[in-house]
Amino acid sequence: MRVRIPILALIFVLAVALSAWAESISGTYRVTEDGEDRSVEQFTIDWNKDGSVKAEGNTSHREGEGPKQAQITDVTELRLDAAGALRDYQRDVYVAGVPRKLFMKHDGAQFRVRINTGQGRMERKIGGLPDRLVLDRGVFHHFNLLLHKAKDDNRLGRTIPYLVPSEFREGVAYVDDRGNHAAKLGDRWYRARRYFVDLGDEGLSVWADNEGRVIRVESPMTGILAELKDYRGTVVDPPEPTNVITRAVRLEKVTFDSVDPAGNVTKLSGLLRKPAAAAPKLPALIFISETGAHDARGIEQNSQLDTLSGQLCDAIAEAGFVVLSWDDRGVGGSQGELIAATLTTHENDAKAAIKFLKARQDVDAGAVSAMGLGEGGNVALRLADEPEVVHKVIALAPSPVSFTRLAEDQIRRRLTEEEATFDEGTIARHPVMMAVEKARESKDDFAVIAGRPVYLNVYREWDGLDPAADVQRAKVPVLHLSFGKDRQVFPELTKSMTEKLAGVRLYTHSELPELDHFLVASRGTVGSYADPDRRVADEAVTTIVRWLLQK
Question: Regarding the domain delimited by 249-401+465-549, which CATH topology (the fold level of the hierarchy) does it fall under?
Fold first, then answer.
């Protein structure tokens, strides 16, 4: 699902003296969310001769929909002294004319944050040195200060600690320089330099001109885009489209039928890859996608996140395999309804894909294997006891426990990282856990919870999942790959599964310690998922291909 951060998107405030960049920046950002206008932000930043900095902003935007929509005015003011220490930070947010005021100062030992509302007052202390970066929600002009901090303090690619005053928390950001990349503003392209900003929980691309002025900020994970209005920079030609498909791979669009036990037919749309110089008969592999609505190239449709399965499938095909992936049910050219699809449904679709490959003249019918990522890995494991169906099985970061247990651990970890106050009741009230509890109590397969349709049989199968038992029943070789920087499937949970399976003859487990959930060598943050330059690690491809080729 798309991460929904309110239009108060991320702000960065840093202390820094400028070198070659402008001493004063002002302008107006137009902010959109999923292509719809959300706010307009006017700002001015002054770097004074004594080294002090003053940044001011005034934003007007809309929150909510229909009759509940409210007009909000957001006024910020930041002052840094000549040494780069925070003198004070103030933020006044007016909702329908009612103020909500935030004020922050450093008391010599800690930051003291005070929030006054019409209903009361909150005050907290946050640790940190006075020159620590401030990261709040919703002021885009502070990205200008972020870039100056990263460059002038020689912190590109290094940790930049920050505070989030409105949420009383702290974190670590990274800024990576990605070189010259044209920035699109409206229907024109301008000369600029692109930076990738990893906030830990979100990743953004930021473009700046040669004066250090941020002209575009894009957050793929939230659908938020900020563009500098009335910009008069150097116009350039649009960049050439990047072809991420290797020339050594041929692509073929295909369709095949998935027939359930009741005889109902669902047409699925697939993408078949094979080497350009293909032998008459090749080993083959199906790829089963992660949880979510993915197309055959691995793009999750709600967040537009590239899970990179397309890159992975391309690389395996180039190594000498026919590889088939497909649009999930209800996505692209595939029929069906994903929300109603159980693990059994996905397993049935996978068997249909294998059957389709075995019928092709260019496929060795005795060497068709199955590979899946995340939930897809668990589906692949369910095939491992059917040697007449599948040759080998590869599970990439499958859940090592029931999905109920995994979801519970994910919720608990996120709340802990956010330093939220919670108890077991908080977890039980999470929508996923409520659906699981309803599925346990009811014999029905469908219910409406909080006004939303819920297919209880989906959660019932999730609750009953036992991956270790699936492996113990295996009659074909199984490769289980886990990843040391996985933020979805935690290594300690994987350890509990591998210990149960010690000595199982057909089971091989390997951990790639530097890779994340999507097989990328990264910092292991959720924010890194939005990095447009991410690539599947060669180490992962080599491990998979070598294992598939073993007799």
Answer: Rossmann fold (3.40.50)
**DSSP 8-state assignment for residue 106:** E
DSSP E strand boundaries for 221-376? 224-228, 235-236, 249-259, 265-275, 282-288, 322-326, 363-373
Which one, of 438, 280, 418, lies nearest residue 360 by Cα? 280
DSSP string, 489-514: S-HHHHHHHHHHTTT-TTEEEEEETT
Domain spans of the chain, in order of start: 24-236, 249-401+465-549, 403-464
User: What does the alpha-carbon distance between residue 227 and residue 244 come to, in Å, rounded to a whole number?
Assistant: 27
137 near 6, Cβ under 8 Å? yes
Phi, psi of 469 (to 5 degrees): -65, -35
**Are the C-beta atoms of 222 and 9 separated by less than 8 Å?**
yes
Tens of pLDDT, residues 380-427: 999 999 999 999 999 999 999 999 999 999 888 888 876 667 778 888
Q: How far apart are CA 329 and CA 351, in angstroms?
A: 15
C-alpha–C-alpha distance, residues 89 and 507, integer Å: 57
Q: What is the pLDDT of residues 21-52, one digit of tens each?
A: 668 999 999 999 989 898 999 999 999 988 89
Both structure tokens of 290: 């992660």
